[in-house]
Design a protein that fits this description.
- The chain is an alpha/beta fold.
- It contains 13 helices and eleven strands.
- It has two domains: 205 residues, Rossmann fold, CATH 3.40.50; 104 residues, Helicase, Ruva Protein, domain 3, CATH 1.10.8.
- α3 packs antiparallel against α4, α3 runs antiparallel to α5 and α11 packs parallel to α13.
- It starts with a helix and ends with a strand.
Length: 318
Amino acid sequence: AASMKAAQVPDWIIQKDFSVLKELPDKIRSRFIGQDEALNGVVRLSRIGYGGGRTDEKPVASIMFAGPTGTGKTYLSKLLSKGLGLKMITMDMTTYRSSVSMDRFLSVMTDNLTINPHAVYVFEEIDKANVQVLDRLYFLLDEGIFYDRNQKPMYARGCFVIMTTNTGYDIIVKNRDKGNVRELFELALLDRFRPSFLNRFDEIAMFRPFTDPEYIDMAKLHIRLKADGMKETYNWNLTVDDAIHSLIARESRSLTFGARPTLRMINGILSLGVTNYQIEKAPLEEGSNINLELLSAEDQRFRLSVEGGDSLDYQVNL
């Protein structure tokens, strides 16, 4: 147990407190919209990997997240690592495009695994990596071992491995309503990756563009999270009209950029309203009850009112 503690293994794994795995789906879903295939995949793999169901000599789990930008690949990785109580190590694979970057990759990975042998490892944009880098990762996926520059094997069986890619995003977007979209997507993956590499993953999750109802749910969720942050930081109580949820969902929907315009619009509307009120009216006191309503969807005009105080009309151009 002492050696596991030194290797930064969470207490719940040492003590076999599997309530963490039981609560994981609800914990992630409370902050994540859509992408059932990927969410169910990481939950399933977490249960197998940490619950005693894995008997082969491989990493705890390995999964590829593939799909359009802004659909939640990195965000789900963050929620997973937080839910499991593990550190998240992110590797930007665009920096390892050329063969001359191989030494740097080996050095960074060696340092990471030495310090964090038990962590969620996220290799972002894996399709950009040099073929030599992919070869090293092949062994990590296949054996749970990473070979350093001297071919010395390093333990990597405590890693939850996630690799992300936008490969096939155009196929997914173009054929999102077709029954054979998964088949077309897999063919696109085979154009970029060797079958032997893809076969080393426990699962490959396809991320889809968000639907109209999901954009509304996303607006509600992230407004709630923003309000929770204001409550925790300033003890402000924020309520937002439903019409604003619909406006944000309608105006920010994007097949190209996914959820990012939605998050930017939420931040712009809420942050600008609070900031303008404090500058033009009065500082908001602790315990303030704030209401935000939509005055004009066409002009994107809003009114922020403070109970027992003043109100401010403002316009947002996003």
